[in-house]
Amino acid sequence: MKGASWLSIGVVAAMLVALPLLLTSNVALNFITFAGIITLAAQGWNILAGYGGQFSFGHAAFFGTGAYAMALLQVRLGLNPWLALPIAIAIGGVVGFLIGALSFRARLRGSYFALVTLAFAEVLRILTNALSFTGGAAGVLIPLRVGSDNMQFRDARVLCWLVLAFVVGALCLTYAIARSRFGAYLVAVRENEDAARALGVDTFLVKLKAITVSAMLTAAAGCLYAQKSLYLDAGIGFGPWISIDALLAPIVGGIGTVFGPLVGAAALLGLGEVTKTLIASLTGGAAPGVDLIVFGALLILSVAFAPQGLMGLVRVLRPASKGGA
Amino acid sequence: MAAPILDVLSVTKTFGGLTAVRAASFDVAEGSITGLIGPNGAGKTTMFAVIAGFETPTEGSVRYRGVDVTGLDVHRRAALGIARTFQIVQPFAGLTVRENIAVGAYLRHRERRRAHEMAAKVAEGVGLSSMLGQSASELTAAGRKRLELARALATEPQLLLLDEVLAGLNPSEIRDMIPVIRVIQQSGVTILMVEHVMQAVMSLCQHIHVLAEGQIIARGTPSAVSRDPRVIEAYLGHGAAKRPHGGESAHA
Questions:
Q1: What are the backbone angles phi and psi of residue B11, rounded to the nearest 5°?
Q2: H or E stretch including A99?
Q3: Which residue, of B116, B141, B156, is where some domain finishes?
Q4: What residues make up the domain containing B246?
């Protein structure tokens, strides 16, 4: 659907896997790992909002849940990170299911749904900041114990590959969903909920499934983030920054497309890095926040000139590939 | 007359202080094309919404094949075999014609390939075959009406509720559409239609119920109903029935 195929996913996967072999500097590996994590979070958002039309402003709720679950399962319960990872993802799914059940049962749509998700994320951020179990304002530190059995790798490329494996998995999952009955129902809900109901679609169930899958993907991003930085506080885990990154990347890249979040995250973060480096070399000092100005400008440009995102531009430039759904 | 597939039992629907439908009862015989007509604002669309499950009646009940479905959600009724079209067409504008119809077909065919085959088959029946790959937003008004019909048909309904599928079409498009509806009935689908195009109602329907100001005021064959003075008055105002040729001008 819309440009993607198993073949194109395979090609992109091969390119992603090759990246850490070609770009071996620490700066580059850090960048790729971080961009991969954002892509994963954004792919989660894309399934719910891009395909399902349910715009969330609060995917930080899922990212933070994943990140904190990953950290606390290790620190408080002493679990091995390889075991903590699937449990944390599942907890993220449960949180998504609950938020979805509450807001979709109340028939919240559009901006009301968006505001409620934002509120859930903020409540979780404040609670995390206040509770001693989560480390309060001081945050939580995952002890440094390097070893692959402990998911802390001497070679930075390994974590990078782990993140990229998740990204490829998310691409496959999104493509499979887009071609399934569930995917067709999801898009139908986005396009016209009443018409979907009349055709036998249980719209509540479809949205609930979507937010659960979406939350699991974004929680996985949170888990990997926790394992990369080994430190979390409430602002990192549940802060609005990740909610914004998770929605900005698909909007810039191409909302409701398989590759949109990946393209968008690479473009956004890449330009942000370039700008930061340029400003720093020109002025001789860092200018924190300058990448956010770039994000804002890109958002305005893409909404004004490429409402279908960069993937949409590709389609405009190559109109031959039509039909064949 | 065959056993009724649908029974509407003294349904009342109020919106705040407004009573849209008042104690209306009627039934639809299995295999028939039954018309539900009435002047603007008579409550026809509300009646459809109640039958399809979009509105819960304030009082009364709806029975489908003898089973009370009043409390069932819309998608459950669709699964039982009740499908509807919308008076104001509701295409999935961002999708192709094929994808639009496939959403309906997925109800009985879980697999993508089967659903798309079904969509192509249904499209052929309503004359949309050549437009399968087009975006739904590119269709003409007549095309959108056909798409509305195709999507509902793709759910393989036993009772099809058609809400003004002919409204907004020109006379030649209406002439094209009438045989399509007749073929649907001949394939075994019972049809209940709300329609203002009297030429179509007269030629298609075996039985007609007339709704005016929320109440059923007449019922019978098309020719009997069109001569009924209460019906003529409902359409044309008080005293209209006494004027000569009042019946023929009841086109509205």
A1: -85, 130
A2: helix A81-105
A3: B156
A4: 1-81+157-252
Q: Give the H or E element holding residue B141.
A: helix B141-154
Instruction: For chain A, report the end-to-end CA distance as a whole number of angstroms.
Output: 6
User: Residue A181 and residue B93: Cβ atoms within 8 Å?
Assistant: no
Q: How far is A13 from chain B, CA to nearest CA, in Å?
A: 25
pLDDT of residue B226: 86
Q: Look at residue A33 and tell me whether its pLDDT is greater than 60.
A: yes
The single-letter code of the amino acid at B135 is: S
pTM of the model: 0.90
In Å, how far is A53's CA from the nearest CA of chain B?
12
Nearest to B94 among A191, A200, A203 (CB): A191
What the block records as the tokens of B218 is 């007449």
- Of B39, B16, B7, B6, nearest in space to B250 by CA: B39
Separation in Å, CA of B83 to nearest CA in chain A: 7
CA distance A178 to A256: 9
| Assigned domain for A141 exists | yes
Any bridge partners for residue A231, and if so which? A141
Whether residue B166 is found in the same domain as residue B247: yes
Q: Which residue in the block uniquely carries the two structure tokens 């394992």?
A: A227
| Among A103, A106, A79, CA closest to A90 | A79
Cα–Cα distances in angstroms (integers) from residue B144 to residues A292, B90, B156, B177, in the given order: 44, 9, 19, 12
What distance in Å separates the CA atoms of residue A110 and residue A103, rounded to the nearest whole number? 11
Residue B215 and residue B22: Cα distance in Å, rounded?
5
Closest residue of chain B to A203, computed from CA coordinates? B75
Same domain, B169 and B74: yes
Among B171, B157, B175, B166, residue whose Cα is nearest residue B193: B166
The pLDDT of residue B192 is 96
Q: Domain boundary residue among B106, B123, B156? A: B156
Distances, alpha carbon B121 to alpha carbons A182, A281, B126, B156, in Å: 22, 64, 9, 12
ipTM comes to 0.88
In the Cβ-directed half-sphere of A166, how many Cα atoms lie within 13 Å? 31
Same domain? B107 vs B148: yes
Domain tally, chain A: 1
